[in-house]
Amino acid sequence: MDGVLDVEPSPRIEPGYYYDYHFKITNPPGTHIYHSHVKVAKQDMLGLLGGFVILLDPHERNINKDYLLLMQEWSLSGLEKGGKVELGQYNLKPFKMDFNMFIINGKSFPSATPMPVEYGDIVRLRLGAIQINHHPMHIHGHQFLVEKADGNPIAANDRILKNTILVADGKT
């Protein structure tokens, strides 16, 4: 089910009601994203989006830490682009494209969730960008191996070592 009324046989879900989606997973193990297909600008900005991870790859290496990082941008009232973020509340402007706040997993610095790592850990970072802009990502002082894209494995001889990766919108 895609969820777009008049396109797919999807139910109309009225406020205060719910619908349980049941589906068979046929994708290979990996990282995938979802978002609303109705009133996309508003519902994405208000958080109706996310990621899901299909596990159980029999060829998986021993990963010590596994983190999903979903990047998004917001347009906030009362915050000038490049301006200092003050403690308090800001209202979202869901129909504006003048983004002035970059967030990961719904939070920005200093409220971001730490990702503890110990020496010798094998760490998987699952990166996804949802909304409009591409996001270059890097890890200070480290390189990483790109082994999957859009939820699909990359053959071992085609994997590349990088220090920065451009995560395009709608991609993982």
Polypeptide structure, described:
The protein is mainly beta. It has 1 helix and 11 strands, in the order βαββββββββββ. The protein has one domain: Immunoglobulin-like. The strands form 5 sheets. A 3-stranded mixed sheet has the order 4-3-5, with no helix packed on it. It starts with 29 loop residues before the first strand and ends in a 5-residue tail after the last strand.
List the helices and strands and how they pair.
Blueprint: E1 30-35, H1 40-45, E2 49-54, E3 65-74, E4 101-104, E5 123-129, E6 135-138, E7 144-146, E8 148-149, E9 152-153, E10 160-162, E11 164-167
Parallel strand pairs: 3-5
Antiparallel strand pairs: 1-2, 3-4, 6-11, 7-10, 8-9
Overview features:
172 residues; mainly beta; Immunoglobulin-like; two-stranded antiparallel ribbon; 11 strands
If you consult CATH, what is the topology? Immunoglobulin-like
- The class by helix and strand makeup works out as mainly beta
The figure for the number of domains is: 1
Share of residues in strands: 25-35%
The average pLDDT is 83
CATH class: Mainly Beta
Could you state the order of secondary-structure elements as H and E?
EHEEEEEEEEEE
What oligomerization state is this entry in? single chain
SS elements, strand count: 11
Q: What shape does the CA trace take?
A: globular
User: Total number of helical segments?
Assistant: 1
